[in-house]
Here is the input.
Amino acid sequence: MSEPHDVGCELALKRLVEFVDRELPVSEHDSIEQHLRICRNCCSRAEFESQLKQRLSSLPSEGVPPATRDRVRDLLKRF
Amino acid sequence: MVPVTLVEPFRPFARLWSRHRLTISKDDFESRVLAILGPLHGVARRLTQNETDAEDLVAETLTRAWGARASLADASAFRAWLFRILNNTFISERRKTLARPREELLVEDSSQEDSAFSLFEHLHEPFLLWLANPEQEFFDKLLREDLDRALAALPEHHRVVVVLADVEGLTYGEVAETLDVPVGTVRSRLARARSALQRTLLNVARDRGLQAARAPSAHGIVRRKVSNV
Here is the structure.
């Protein structure tokens, strides 16, 4: 029984952002994940990209100002 | 057997018919808008970078959306549909104020913009080898204001994809729908935009003493070592 073919660092890094975004087809996602299990550097890079994305997604919204919310409600009532 | 052969050819038409029949009620429209008003205003705020303009953009978007509600083919795509109208409204409003808006807002990806810049690689340059975990040091020192400033510094065509995909969490398909471009274009724009964002964040790393203010290494990834010094 042979080991699954390793995609290598070059392809892994090329697909890393899509991997982190979960936008790869399942088979390709699994191949990259397999590589990350055996390559510390690519794994660290993936963690970095993932953490940066997480920080962006958790940027707290400043919230909708009450005046804007009121204007929107008034507008919706007029439709 | 006969009903199957009769019904099958008409299925596509049935779908078309049902699509054209989709009309969103006023109550449904209102509840859907209010449910995503936060993200809608957030995107508007980051696009306009001005509270007054953001409010006007949201109001104009909703007015246009209500007028164009018959174009909503799939109610489950309401968010992407509304963001698309927001983006188009923003572009059309900017056209009125900018001399060369298309170049700024709808720039194509044929430029020489770098999509290969990696902050991770720069944090691992040789002079930092004494740091056991430079990327964690970076995140520990990265403030919300740093990210806000880095986002604000991006050109609009970069900022919009990062805001939609990373801040608001839209899928590539939804971003493509919003910007009215193919998914492949979203991939390439996002790669360039993130690269530009990380290039800006390099300055943050430098300010925090995590990167020297010098030309980046041409050697690519440098494997981390822990110095005895």
Remarks:
- The interface with chain A takes residues 26, 29-30, 33-34, 37-39, 41-42, 45, 51, 54-55, 58-59, 62-63, 66, 118-120, 135, 139, 142, 144, 147-148, 151, 162, 165-167, 169, 171-172, 187, 190-191, 194, 198, 221, 223-224 of chain B (CB under 8 Å).
